[in-house]
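Here comes just one.
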Amino acid sequence: MKDHHPDQVISSANEKWENKSKTSARGGLISRNVTVNNHRTSIRLESEMWSGFREICRRERASMHELCTMVAEHKPPGTSLTAAIRVFIMAYFRAASTEDGHMKAGHGPGGFFMASQKIQVIPANTCRTLGTGEGENMIFR
């Protein structure tokens, strides 16, 4: 058997998995099957979320199945796996962000990032919010 670098093995497994994904007509969600604790289940996330999740897998040298299992084992009771994965992705990148990184990316008041984005603020009472307080606004691109 030919030896492969761990990144190659994980990358190959994730590419095969990605090719089997299905895009939903509702909101551009992509459904993918994963194995969590030896049980097959499906997860629906936006393309950008899948991209972020693949990046985490690459950085952590773990398969998507391994990370999904880890998230499932640590999620709060009553929380869906999909919601827990979204929170995990956001928390992972938030923990990795630094003030220097934000400056380089043009984040902050008057920064390039906000000026270059097509962002629409929608009042909370007109959209479904997850985990936000009453009267807060949600930001959508």
